[in-house]
Amino acid sequence: MNIGQAATASGISAKMIRYYESVGLIPSADRSTSGYRVYSRDDVHTLRFIRRARDLGFSVEQIAALLALWQDRSRASADVKRLALGHVEKLEAKRREIDEMVATLRYLASHCQGNNRPGCPIIDELAAGREITAPSPRRDRKAN
Question: 73: how many CB neighbours lie within 10 A of its CB?
């Protein structure tokens, strides 16, 4: 099948397939006599594996490691589990960072009048150039 058909079958755009080839995540496709990329069912199966891994937030480097483990029939499942749990830790850290950003933005927005006047604590805090963090809920209770 050509790259368009492989893209449709795998759920990965042709542009991303070319990118994955360029970074060595997948081998370069065979070429037809006219120079077009030709993909097999196995190639599409690999591309689907990559798509599912990307859907779970794995990086290209992590996917390369997962592909190597997938293709190694003598692999230890402990290696796969270690990689997956390492990714979970990174996702949880990112979630904590996002939760902090949300709390800070909500805090700043709660102190903004939201009227037609130019004064706004959100802009003031961004312009101050210092780290912005919302007070913890405990500190708010003590202040009340």
Answer: 5
